[in-house]
């Protein structure tokens, strides 16, 4: 046994029998969605002959976690049938695809090479700690490893098959338990052999999975780096450790600290691990190397940072298991960033887009809001990168993660920002990053935080009708959607949505608009829907906006945002319409015309709007649908910027249904009154039969080029207008 020992019991995974209560065998968790076991264990679970080579067809099994308290359905993904040629058969592998991810507490197995002389431990599939059985690999004969267990303690037997064989450190597995020798008619029976079992080595498992075309399964597995005699990285690490820790007592002190951080036990007899044992831990244990370097930070003469610590960390970049951060640094950062995300879930993505312009960003940082559950993966992904900024000659580069944290700290400010800044200082000191390089990033972050883009107040969604899809009654409407943001300072930016120019269903459009509004920050922006004349009659406010996460139900767009319509087509068709539009807006105060039964037709309404109501900027339409459609076109052509009507109204007798919206009340509050009404009416549509539509064409979006099709939206980063060809991503 080695100097470092595992204290945790690996969590067993069970393959359950037909009745779902008994573990017929064990399994190894390869990834959150896959487990590996023996094919004969699956046969037994399904009531088939033990060594049947026929792949079961579409059967569903149950896999148990946490001592079978969590049960997940699974189906066969890869089948390697048993090949019973000798007393120890070969093949006998099965990969099961889980119907849902494994519990968060279940860690995938880390695989290592099987070598002769290894001390190994197995558990029964039931997972009870008392069932552990120790054994030693006596012979590795090609793909099969033969193991002998001691005469004391438990023996490997039924229910162990398919489970991993853990190394004596408990952090990796060298192979898979397959069977027990000892059939009475076999060459090796109980009278000749005691407690002899056989297993498939990890090398054999890997080779057989590749042979059946399951290379993606192998790629999904976690493995450790072995340290053969000729491994140059292991040799260099050993040399550096000898120079850093030549004294056994000092090596024991730092090794004990490392063991505590890693959850391992260490002897209390005053002994020290060999340099080779310490090297093996650094090569195989996640974050072991940066954790040890944290302990070595003051190991130099006079408590200074050792000169060779930078070389140790540089070599450590070639170790897959190392990572950038120590255990403590990672836990602290994840906890602080969780607080940031709870306060402003949009901040990490905005800071990353500014600080790490030339760094590949994790997918979670390319969305509007960062879910707290994605933090660990974001940190892990960014640990592998360094920023592209300059540093003093001969000093390490600044990690991309540190650069991002500086920007987040500057934006957050206060005590939380101070804690993040101190974290950055500690990490840079350990890594040997020059203070001048760190301070340069900090100054850039402060400048960005002081000049952050003003909040978004409005979102413009331009809808263009596309060809319907489907046939007959199944034909479904499709639309193309483009988005722009307007900021509080009046600047406008085109949003790249990822949808491109693809035709979308109404539900997809609703979700796209919601996502665009979420990228606006914490506020609730007004949403303007730009449509053609026919689109003015679409129930866009009723389109489902989808759910932002698994806890919040989906809502219609009109209940989610203050949503209004605008129709630029009218300005292209009526030359003087823009002039009239600006004149009618005037000072923005409401001057209303209500279309009631006294207004018989369009001629009469046109006469009113050109005489007694020449300054009217707000029309409330009542009456039957055909008349409303005619009068709507008329009002817009005469430059009326605000028109309200009820899509569900059949005639003038339904005019009172708009009363809850106070249709002639304060004009500037009308969009918000409509928004509140839509939200209030949502639970009881029968009790609120009105379906309000509101055209609201204020001066938020600037004029169009003569005869053009694009809004003249001013980009704050350029003096030219924005168009499809010259759009810039926010």
Largest sheet: 6 strands, antiparallel, barrel
Mean pLDDT: 85
Shape verdict: elongated
Strand order of the largest sheet: 2-3-4-7-6-5
Q: What integer value in Å does the Rg equal? A: 35 Å
What's the β-strand tally? 27
Helix share, percent = 25-40%
How far apart, in Å, are the first and last alpha carbons?
Answer: 58 Å
> From the helix content, strand content and strand pairing, which structural class follows?
alpha+beta
Give the DSSP E fraction (strand runs of 2 or more residues).
Answer: 15-25%
Poorly predicted segments = 183-193, 702-730
Instruction: State the helix count.
Output: 21
Question: What features would you highlight for this structure?
Answer:
6-stranded antiparallel β-barrel, 730 residues
How would you describe this structure to a colleague?
- By secondary structure, the protein is of the alpha+beta class.
- It contains 21 helices and 27 strands.
- Strands 2-3-4-7-6-5 form a 6-stranded antiparallel beta barrel.
- Strand 5 (60-65) and strand 6 (70-83) form a beta hairpin.
- The two termini are 58 Å apart.
Could you give a quick summary of the protein structure above?
It contains 21 helices and 27 strands.
SSE layout and pairing:
Elements: E1 5-6, E2 13-16, E3 23-31, E4 34-37, H1 39-45, E5 60-65, E6 70-83, E7 90-98, E8 110-111, E9 119-122, E10 133-141, E11 144-148, E12 164-167, E13 173-180, E14 196-201, H2 202-211, H3 215-219, E15 222-223, H4 232-244, H5 248-262, E16 264-265, H6 275-284, H7 288-295, H8 309-316, H9 327-343, H10 347-355, H11 375-382, H12 400-412, H13 414-431, H14 435-450, E17 456-469, E18 476-487, E19 492-495, H15 506-518, E20 526-530, H16 557-560, E21 563-566, H17 569-573, H18 577-585, E22 592-595, H19 602-609, E23 618-621, H20 625-637, E24 642-646, H21 670-681, E25 692-696, E26 713-714, E27 721-722
Parallel strand pairs: 8-15, 17-20, 20-21, 22-23, 23-24
Antiparallel strand pairs: 1-16, 2-3, 2-5, 3-4, 4-7, 5-6, 6-7, 9-10, 9-12, 10-11, 11-14, 12-13, 13-14, 17-18, 18-19, 24-25, 26-27
Helix pairs in contact: 4-6, 4-8, 5-7, 9-13, 10-12, 12-13, 12-14, 19-20
């Amino acid at each position: 046994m080695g100097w470092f020992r595992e204290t945790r019991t690996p969590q067993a995974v069970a393959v359950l029998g037909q009745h779902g209560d008994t573990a017929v065998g064990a399994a190894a968790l390869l990834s959150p969605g896959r487990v590996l076991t023996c094919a004969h264990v699956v046969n037994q679970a399904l009531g088939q002959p033990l060594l049947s080579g026929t792949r079961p067809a579409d059967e569903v099994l149950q896999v148990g976690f946490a001592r079978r308290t969590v049960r997940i359905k699974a189906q066969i993904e890869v089948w390697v049938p048993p090949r019973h040629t000798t007393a120890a058969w070969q093949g006998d592998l099965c990969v099961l695809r889980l119907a849902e991810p494994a519990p968060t507490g279940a860690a995938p197995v880390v695989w290592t090479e099987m070598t002769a002389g290894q001390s190994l431990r197995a558990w029964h599939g039931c997972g009870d700690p008392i069932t552990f059985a120790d054994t030693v690999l006596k012979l590795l004969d090609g793909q099969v490893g033969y193991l002998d267990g001691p005469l004391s303690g438990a023996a490997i037997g039924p229910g162990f098959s398919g489970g991993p064989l853990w190394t004596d450190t408990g952090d990796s597995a060298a192979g898979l338990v397959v069977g027990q020798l000892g059939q009475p008619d076999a060459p090796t029976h109980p009278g000749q052999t005691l407690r002899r079992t056989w297993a498939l080595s990890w090398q054999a498992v890997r080779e057989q999975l590749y042979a059946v075309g399951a290379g993606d399964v192998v790629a999904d597995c976690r493995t450790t780096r072995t340290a053969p005699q000729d491994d140059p990285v292991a040799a260099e690490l050993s040399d550096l450790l000898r120079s850093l820790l030549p004294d056994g007592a000092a090596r024991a002190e730092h090794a004990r600290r490392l063991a505590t951080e890693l959850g391992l036990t260490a002897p209390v007899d005053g002994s020290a691990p060999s340099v080779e044992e310490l090297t093996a831990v650094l090569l195989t244990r996640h974050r072991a190397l940066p954790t040890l370097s944290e302990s070595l930070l003051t190991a130099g003469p006079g408590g200074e940072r050792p000169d060779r610590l930078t070389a140790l960390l540089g070599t450590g970049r070639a170790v897959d298991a190392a990572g950038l951060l120590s255990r403590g640094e990672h836990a602290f950062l994840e906890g602080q960033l969780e607080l940031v995300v709870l306060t402003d879930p949009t901040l990490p993505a905005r800071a990353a887009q500014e600080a790490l312009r030339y760094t590949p960003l994790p997918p979670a940082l390319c969305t509007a809001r960062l879910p707290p559950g994605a933090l660990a993966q974001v940190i892990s992904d960014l640990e592998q990168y360094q920023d592209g900024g300059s540093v003093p000659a001969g000093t390490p580069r600044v990690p991309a993660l540190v650069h991002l944290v500086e920007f987040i700290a500057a934006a957050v400010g206060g005590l939380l920002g101070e804690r993040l800044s101190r974290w950055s200082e500690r990490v840079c000191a350990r890594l040997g990053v020059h203070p001048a390089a760190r301070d340069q990033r900090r100054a850039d972050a402060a400048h960005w935080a002081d000049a952050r883009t003003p909040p978004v107040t409005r979102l413009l969604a331009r809808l263009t009708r596309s060809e319907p899809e489907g046939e007959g009654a199944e034909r479904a409407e499709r639309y193309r959607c483009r988005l722009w943001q307007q900021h509080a300072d009046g600047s406008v930016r085109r949003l790249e949505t990822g949808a491109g120019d693809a035709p979308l269903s109404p539900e997809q459009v609703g979700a796209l608009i919601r996502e665009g509004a979420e990228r606006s920050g914490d506020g609730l922006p007004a949403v303007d829907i730009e449509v053609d004349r026919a689109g003015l009659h679409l129930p866009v406010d009723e389109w489902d906006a989808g759910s932002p996460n698994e806890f919040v139900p989906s809502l219609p767009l009109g209940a989610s945002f203050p949503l209004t319509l605008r129709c630029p087509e009218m300005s292209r068709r009526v030359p003087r319409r823009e002039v009239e539009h600006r004149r009618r807006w005037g000072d923005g105060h409401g001057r209303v015309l209500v279309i009631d039964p006294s207004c018989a037709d369009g001629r009469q309404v046109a006469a009113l709007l050109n005489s007694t109501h020449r300054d009217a900027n707000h029309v409330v339409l009542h009456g039957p649908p055909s008349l409303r459609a005619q009068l709507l076109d008329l009002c817009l052509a005469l430059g009326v910027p605000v028109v309200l009507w009820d899509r569900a109204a059949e005639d003038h007798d339904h005019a009172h249904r708009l009363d809850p919206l106070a249709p002639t009340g304060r004009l500037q509050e009308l969009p918000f009154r409509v928004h509140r009404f839509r939200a209030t009416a949502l639970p009881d549509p029968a009790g609120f039969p009105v379906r309000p539509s509101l055209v609201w064409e204020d001066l938020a979006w600037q004029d169009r080029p003569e005869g053009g099709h694009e809004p003249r939206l001013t980009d704050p980063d350029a003096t030219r207008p924005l168009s499809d060809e010259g759009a810039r991503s926010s």
